[in-house]
What we know:
The complex is a heterodimer. Helix content of chain A is 27%, strand content 30%. Chain A is an alpha/beta fold.
Amino acid sequence: xxxxxxxxxxxxxxxxxxxxxxxxxxxxxxxxxxxxxxxxxxxxxxxxxxxxxxxxxxxxxxxxxxxxxxxxxxxxxxxxxxxxxxxxxxxxxxxxxxxxxxxxxxxxxxxxxxxxxxxxxxxxxxxxxxxxxxxxxxxxxxxxxxxxxxxxxxxxxxxxxxxxxx
Amino acid sequence: xxxxxxxxxxxxxxxxxxxxxxxxxxxxxxxxxxxxxxxxxxxxxxxxxxxxxxxxxxxxxxxxxxxxxxxxxxxxxxxxxxxxxxxxxxxxxxxxxxxxxxxxxxxxxxxxxxxxxxxxxxxxxxxxxxxxxxxxxxxxxxxxxxxxxxxxxxxxxxxxxxxxxxxxxxxxxxxxxxxxxxxxxxxxxxxxxxxxxxxxxxxxxxxxxxxxxxxxxxxxxxxxxxxxxxxxxxxxxxxxxxxxxxxxxxxxxxxxxxxxxxxxxxxxxxxxxxxxxxxxxxxxxxxxxxxxxxxxxxxxxxxxxxxxxxxxxxxxxxxxxxxxxxxxxxxxxxxxxxxxxxxxxxxxxxxxxxxxxxxxxxxxxxxxxxxxxxxxxxxxxxxxxxxxxxxxxxxxxxxxxxxxxxxxxxxxxxxxxxxxxxxxxxxxxxxxxxxxxxxxxxxxxxxxxxxxxxxxxxxxxxxxxxxxxxxxxxxxxxxxxxxxxxxxxxxxxxxxxxxxxxxxxxxxxxxxxxxxxxxxxxxxxxxxxxxxxxxxxxxxxxxxxxxxxxxxxxxxxxxxxxxxxxxxxxxxxxxxxxxxxxxxxxxxxxxxxxxxxxxxxxxxxxxxxxxxxxxxxxxxxxxxxxxxxxxxxxxxxxxxxxxxxxxxxxxxxxxxxxxxxxxxxxxxxxxxxxxxxxxxxxxxxxxxxxxxxxxxxxxxxxxxxx
Lengths: 166, 706
């Protein structure tokens, strides 16, 4: 499933890396961040702990922060999509304002297609005040002469960090 | 539609190139996006669910409202555009705001929100790149999904230069970067954000929005007040149906498997935040309950009907539509914006049904357009033409015979008409016309019967319904049909009392006349016992087979008769194909197989679902190879009276067809429609081409004579 996911995500312009350890994934993220503070969405506690060496930007400086980090609750193989819970407005700001968006994805959370993500979506939307994003590749437009151009309003780069065996 | 506007669009080289390139690229991208997906199954399910949803629309509105409100949103149901505009203004004023930042919403175009707000001191900023471009240009979208497809980069650079006060180069990546930088400050300073929505889910109260640019997230997040303006037809009962819509929409719209972002929002997300959902009715609840036209609301606004429309490809969305463009735009305009706005545009459809083939919600777009023509004002003189003349077969046929004499002075070499006097001349500029024959087929066949020239054939009995064009212009084509079917083992007779199938009347909105023609022909064609009724004009086939039952569905006696007739009606190719593989009629091995190209008539392929049989007939009965042309099933631009009403457009559609024919290198174009033959032959002749156009029946007759 993660092979199909990778092909689909790459087809929509995402960079996909597969890691067997969280440490290796974190090292990749460190490279992306290049020592600058990152805008981090709500992360599972284990992952948050693994990022202890990182500097985190405050929400009011998100418009100037280059790299955002999120955690996906699921992946969709057919379209290379990520299910990201961005219910916290600060998380949304982080993910939408950054130029580079890095998203952790557990390989075991990948499902076949959009239809198979129905229950996950329903669960995620069970309570009020929810914002669930299905993100597939970087921000794009073809509004001028139908020429595909990446990074119009949202991130110019989307990196998917797949955690194998997790 | 003003002829000057049409001519201006036809002569807009950038627009033409942009639309032509898109028309070529779209089907390829679309096919790739649908790889591994059962499109028919998916759209069948969407159509069925949407149909069921529209039937209980008031209930869905109630359920959605309750669910969204219990999730903390405020729902405003607005009957009219005025009410929606007023409601949105009040929300903005309540926040003490004077600046609205927006992501794309067709509903906002529908109610002309920007215009309303700006007059009342609220500045609006469109952030979808295409919408921003047309906002700066002071125009309206020319496509539902690609609003600025008509603008080239030079025009965009000029607009951006004016907006930013600095010189912007006409380079697309840098224009996109300028938009990003310029609009960023808009997002950050916007006090209230407005979006549309692609789905609203009744059981959870969530809304779903898809974008590629990511501007929706910024619009709904950075300002603390979010307004979503949503047409009530977007409400679906549950997530499963919402996901079907989101699965099909981007594939059909732009040939993408999915957009970069699909967001589901349920209630305001956090303290001090507000979510206002403005549900727009504007005629939708009454349209949903309309048994004839309610189907139009199944639309998911993907714009595919424009993407494949041969007329849209020539004139673009500023001509082919009002605020909603493309085929479905023509249908929705009278209900959303009034019949006065729809009168001219409804005539622009050529009736090729290409839109029906791709519609995500399986709407009979072309059928609805034709039915709507019944509701608009008719041109002067039309009443006499259809009401008096067409209903009286003898009068109609006498007029055609008179026309034979009247045309004589205009016939050139070979008898074809190249120059007509004065105003009629425009029509023949790039197409010569065949003359009306001295003797129509009906006379030839009668003489044949009288002189007893031929043995009455035995075998399955076929009644030949020739159609007026073939009867009076192409009697040879009719004779070829009769002879080839007889050689293939059918017994063929021609009922003399048959008359026009009624399509010209129906397409002109004269439904009563069309019903009269249906009853007359049904009686004539059921009078004699026969196994089949064969036609050589797909428009007639479609009329006899599909339109008669529909036209007469409210008359029990004729409804039954129409069904009996419909079951017997076949096109020539279908009957001929049944005789492939019988006897030794296949291609002679010693003959060098000629290569022909085949043009699918719109009404044969999409009106009757026939496209394999004609090819089988050509290969197996005529013994030729087929060199398929690009867009073999795209309209030739004839469309019956369309080519007379809109000759400029018709000629441009024809040009595309001629280019595709020439590219195959074939010396013969096979068709199964006398109208297509007239159009293509006329175009080839006027261009001095030696390529010939023949009806399949003629090719079969010639082969069987050998």
